[in-house]
Write a structure and sequence with these properties.
The protein is an alpha+beta fold and 70 residues long. Helices cover 33% and strands 33% of the residues. The radius of gyration is 18 Å and the shape is elongated. The N and C termini lie far apart (53 Å).
């Protein structure tokens, strides 16, 4: 079962990679190393997912059915 993220950090490791630390709501942590390219792909994937869900998350209604006022 998926765990819920309670906090995370991303920091350069000084060797050209990045250290990602995730903590779940039970206090368990996972530490990962990623390259710049991998973080860039992660950022793109997160951006695409948020763009897809943005209207639902913000409660924006579809204006396509509303008449245009002149």
């Amino acid at each position: 079962m998926a765990r819920t993220v309670s906090s995370f950090t991303v920091a350069a490791d000084g060797k050209g990679d990045y250290l990602l630390n995730f903590e779940d709501e039970d206090g368990e942590t996972i530490e990962l190393t990623a390259s710049f390219e991998q973080l860039d792909l992660i950022a793109d994937a997160i951006g695409e997912a948020l763009d897809t869900d943005e209207e639902d998350a913000l409660g924006v209604e579809d204006d396509a059915d509303e008449p245009v006022e002149e």
